[in-house]
Write a structure and sequence with these properties.
It holds the Pfam family Lactamase_B. The chain is of the alpha/beta class. The chain has a single domain, classed as Ribonuclease Z/Hydroxyacylglutathione hydrolase-like (Metallo-beta-lactamase, Chain A). The chain has helices spanning about 45-60, 80-85, 95-105, 180-190, 220-225, 235-245, 255-265, and strands at about 5-10, 15-20, 25-30, 35-40, 45, 60-65, 90-95, 120-125, 130, 135-140, 150-155, 155-160, 200, 215-220. Helix 2 links the parallel strand 6 and strand 7. The mean pLDDT is about 95. It binds fe (ii) ion.
């Protein structure tokens, strides 16, 4: 089955949100939504999420799933905002518990912050499946960028999050807490084992040197042949050495501090303090 895939590109965070629609049906899922956040003022905005909501409403679609490929470090999730308006279950990988444990400590969240994934409606494991109407989705656990990363394979389309980027850009960094270049290489092999014609939809695009347009759709065959980090038979050792030396040069994403605190709570803000105000913390020299 070939789902219809509608993409929404957020230029502020280079994130692509996908609406995945059952062919000849009304059911859909949203993958990796964005809540706009202006760090300087501490203000949120729902402009990006509202575009997705309007699309779903205009097409009379039934939103069944709001999926996250992982706990994003570069944008805030709009999953609860979308759920409040359109329904649907919020899903993520079951290894979210590891991510919650790691960042629960870093942000000193205390005992009120549950580290059991209970903020999400569904925790997926390798081999799980789910349905978007008649359309079946299969779950691959593809850690490396984070321990909880998933790839959602829906019909002939694979939503790989930050595991693979476009072939000319390569792969995602593996240096966040719990990341592993070795694990990422192995996860990529799992994706590469899908049929060559499988459409791959990546989680971000930054334009590669020499490319003028943003792009986010490719295929397994193209990744195998052309991916500059893992294609054309690159060895695990070569990849790990390249990835680790490159990661050592990368700055932290601009929104990592707010993103982690919100996304590890399934997109909810922390509880308000006793004055009714919500705060996000900055761990000084803690990340
Ligand atoms: Fe990410």
């Amino acid at each position: 089955m070939t789902p219809t895939v509608q993409s929404f590109f957020d230029e502020a965070t280079n994130t692509i949100t996908y609406v995945v629609i059952e062919p000849q049906g009304k059911a859909c899922a949203v993958i990796d939504s964005v809540l706009d956040f202006d760090y300087a003022s501490g203000h949120t905005d729902t402009r990006s999420a509202d575009l997705v909501i309007a699309y779903i409403q205009e097409h009379g679609l039934d939103l069944q799933w709001i999926l996250e490929t992982h706990v994003h470090a570069d944008h805030l999730s709009a999953a609860p905002y979308i759920q409040e308006r359109l329904g649907g279950k919020i899903g993520i990988g079951d290894r979210i518990t590891v991510v919650q444990d790691t960042f629960g400590k870093i942000f000193n969240e205390g005992t009120r912050f549950q580290r059991d994934g209970s903020q999400f409606d569904q925790l997926f494991r390798e081999g799980d499946s789910f349905h978007i109407g008649q359309l079946r989705g299969d779950v691959l656990h593809t850690p490396g960028h984070t321990p909880a990363c998933l790839t959602y394979v829906v019909g002939d389309a694979a939503f790989v999050g930050d595991t693979l980027f476009m072939p000319d850009f390569g792969t995602a960094r593996c240096d966040f807490p719990g990341g592993s270049a070795e694990a990422l290489f192995d996860s990529v092999q799992k994706i590469m084992a899908l049929p060559d014609e499988t459409r791959i939809f990546v989680g971000h695009d930054y334009k590669a040197p020499g490319r003028d347009e943003f792009a986010w759709e490719t295929t397994v065959g193209a990744q195998k042949a052309l991916n500059i980090h893992v294609g054309a038979g690159k060895s695990r050792e070569e990849f790990v050495a390249m990835r680790e030396s490159r990661d050592a040069t990368l700055a932290m994403p601009r929104l990592i501090i707010p993103s982690l605190q919100v996304n590890m709570r399934a997109g909810q803000m922390p509880e308000p303090e006793d004055n009714g105000q919500v705060y996000l913390k900055v761990p000084v020299n803690g990340l």
